[in-house]
Amino acid sequence: MEILDLINIxxxxxxxxxxxxxxxxxxxxxxxxxxxxxxEMIKQLANSxxxxxxxxxxxxxxxxxxxxxxxxxxASRVGTGNLAxxxxxxxxxxPGAVFWMWIIALLGASNAFIESTLAQxxxxxxxxxxxxxxxxxIKYGIGNKAWANLFAILITIxxxxxxxxxxxxTIASAVNASFGLxxxxxxxxxxxxxxxxxxGSIQRISRFSEIIVPIMAIAYILLAFIIIVLNITQIPSIxxxxxxxxxxxxxxxxxxxxxxxxxxxxxxLFSNEAGEGSAPNVAATASVSHPxxxxxxxxxxxxxxxxxxxxxxxxxxxxxxxxxxxxxxIELTQVALNHEVGAxxxxxxxxxxxxxxxxxxxxxxxxxxxxxxxxxxxxSILYFYRGAVGAMVMIGATASLDFVWAIADxxxxxxxxxxxxxxxxxxxxxxxALNDYRSQRLRGYDPIYHASTxxxxxxxxxxxxx
Length: 466
Prior knowledge:
There is one protein chain. By secondary structure, the protein is an all-alpha fold. 77% of the residues lie in helices and 1% in strands. It has a two-stranded antiparallel ribbon. Strand 1 and strand 2 (130-131) form a beta hairpin. Helix 8 crosses helix 9 and helix 8 runs antiparallel to helix 17. It is globular and about 60 Å long.
């Protein structure tokens, strides 16, 4: 653990600098797209239920809709990070960590737009669906296969193995605290359920996420809303506490500012994944008429995750006042809900974390699968990966909280840095696509993209040829 902590500290500072630099840079280059085009994001999500691609109408049965891609990415984003990650950030970094989670989401949404738009530009047609993501735009856009393979390996380890151990660990802790079931029994059940779903295709995964994600998110938000209403007189002082703790002189002198920022950004990134290079893998599978449409939808997913759901968890914990206790992770969230609405609240969060984290396991698995298919067509490797995912779900359920978080943070940091360098190099093409989209919108058209729009990469984007 000491070695893992040293590696984590080193990577964390590099990660914070790289994330904030890219987020500010792309915010400026896109003319603050995450603020100025929120209405367009909502409009695209509302119209995204139908699959549409003017160039490939015959391939609809092998693709998924923009909304389904949104649901799968939300399934991966909305999970442990929203309930346990927020609690860990507050327990270690204090209430000020919530402020930095907001900042990384507001600025990081521009990173999410760039990476998902690039994923759409450089996607390729697979046997059952479109495929794409950082590995693809690194290989075809930058032309570096070794770098592309490195990213593919990192994301497979991070999501399929490390992150899934975090998800199962959180489920096991929550269920054990509420119902007293053995982590081993919980691990066995989770492993069997996970293998049952992941042995299907992206269509099965997307259908599962499309149904479960909206239901569980709405139920959790409603519970948080009820608690906020019951504690409405506390909300102004809590918001003031979040901001003052993020910048207070006492925190700065005591090193608290650094810890609040560090935990806020790390847990914020774990939750919303903006710039990580994960969401582009599923964003590429959507059938849309213009790459920017999916970029906008994925930017909105960052807000859905952090600004809405993470804030719900933070307000529940801060309203209860239990963040000064010895509890951490999902147990802190459970204690807070138990304090606010009784034992029913604790049991509700157990059910919620089961659904949140289980859909995350499914979404995480898909990120690994699509990158394994990028590296090799051998079915035996894919079967081995499925077995490894099942094994890590089982191991995570019985491992220590600190260990699984440490492994996840290290692999996430390496993967994110790898992706951020790539989007800095290729981001100019996403900007050109955005300008084309805005131009068509101003003329009253429903934007349609053609490969000839960016001649210098036309041959590298065959899915968009007329």
